[in-house]
């Protein structure tokens, strides 16, 4: 049962973090996949990868801000609480997404830094190289980045399927909790 005046959706800051990071991640994934099909060392691959790295490092910098704000602001109440199993599944899925948001850009950073590649941020500055140039470390970072990227794509796909299931099959309030308008249900 709901209490008057109680919020059942995430606040503007949490929704802002969610949608900004979702857009950045989708663009970074698309650019990374497209750049992988381009000839190494050529244009537009170099430029695409510079943007891909800039976006990935932006996500890495936003992540602790998002987590800290989430811990402070908390999670809004449900009008109708999900089952215990559904809540556990959602929590595990979200923790997995957060872990992937952390490890995907870190592995890309290690791949680039250890490989001697640039670490630009949208042409404004370059991130410092915190690991030595080391071919084996770069290859390990590359392999990790590749597999974590695939894992992220799979988990993201499952996340989107869960959103669709809640919105169009269950027709419950779950999607509306993060919907930009803050409505209980999307219109």
Describe the model.
- The chain is mostly helical.
- The protein has one domain: Up-down Bundle (Fumarate Reductase Cytochrome B subunit), CATH 1.20.950.
- Helices cover 65% and strands 2% of the residues.
- The protein has helices spanning 12-36, 45-73, 84-114, 135-170, and strands spanning 120-121, 125-126.
- A hairpin with a 3-residue loop joins β1 and β2 (125-126).
- Residues 1-5 and 182-187 have low confidence and may be disordered.
- Its cofactor is heme b.
- Belongs to the cytochrome b561 family.
- It is a multi-pass membrane protein.
Distance between the termini: 23 Å
Query: Helicity range of the residues?
Result: 55-70%
- Strand order, main sheet: write it out: 1-2
**Overall average pLDDT:** 91
Which CATH architecture?
Up-down Bundle
Number of domain modules: 1
Hey, roughly how much beta strand do the residues contain? under 5%
Sum up the structure in keywords.
heme; Fumarate Reductase Cytochrome B subunit; 187 residues; two-stranded antiparallel sheet
List the helices and strands and how they pair.
Layout: H1 12-36, H2 45-73, H3 84-114, E1 120-121, E2 125-126, H4 135-170
Antiparallel strand pairs: 1-2
Helix pairs in contact: 1-2, 2-3, 3-4
GO molecular function: electron transfer activity; heme binding; metal ion binding
Subcellular location: Cell membrane
Family: Belongs to the cytochrome b561 family.
């Amino acid at each position: 049962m709901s209490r008057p005046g109680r919020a059942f959706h995430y606040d503007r800051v949490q929704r802002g973090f969610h949608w900004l990071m979702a857009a950045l991640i989708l663009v970074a994934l698309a650019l990374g996949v497209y750049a992988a099909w381009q000839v190494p060392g050529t244009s537009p691959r170099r430029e695409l990868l510079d943007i891909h790295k800039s976006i990935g490092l932006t996500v890495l910098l936003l992540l602790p801000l998002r987590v800290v704000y989430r811990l402070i602001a908390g999670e809004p109440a449900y009008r109708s609480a999900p089952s215990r199993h559904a809540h556990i599944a959602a929590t595990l899925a979200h923790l997995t997404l957060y872990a992937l948001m952390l490890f995907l850009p870190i592995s890309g950073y290690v791949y680039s830094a250890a490989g001697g590649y640039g670490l630009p941020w949208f042409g404004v500055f370059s991130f410092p190289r915190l690991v030595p140039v080391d071919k084996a470390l770069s290859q390990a970072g590359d392999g990790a980045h590749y597999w974590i990227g695939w894992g992220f794509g799979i988990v993201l796909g499952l996340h989107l399927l869960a959103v669709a299931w809640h919105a169009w099959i269950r027709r419950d309030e779950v999607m509306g909790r993060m919907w930009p308008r803050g409505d209980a249900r999307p219109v």
